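Help needed: design a sequence for this.
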């Protein structure tokens, strides 16, 4: 999946198909890069996110809000 910034992923609309999909967020790498307090191993390292795409004409904004010890995600607008 291509990225358009260090913290974003993007999909060309033409490539969307109704389907279940999954992304894996490299939370540990991101936390290391922003200088979060180091720990080994990190409590959160790889975060899998599985979701469905049902409307290929819709915009899918899927944010991941992250702290070193927790995260939240939702379908945004």
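Sure. Designed sequence:
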């Amino acid at each position: 999946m291509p990225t358009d910034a260090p913290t974003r992923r993007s999909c060309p609309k033409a490539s969307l198909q109704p389907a279940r999909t999954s992304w894996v967020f490299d939370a540990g790498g991101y936390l290391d890069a922003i200088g979060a307090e180091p720990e080994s191993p990190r409590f959160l390292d790889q975060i899998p996110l599985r979701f469905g795409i049902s409307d290929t004409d819709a915009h899918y904004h899927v944010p991941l809000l992250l702290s070193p010890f927790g995260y939240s995600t939702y379908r945004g607008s």
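The CA atoms of residues 24 and 74 lie 15 Å apart.
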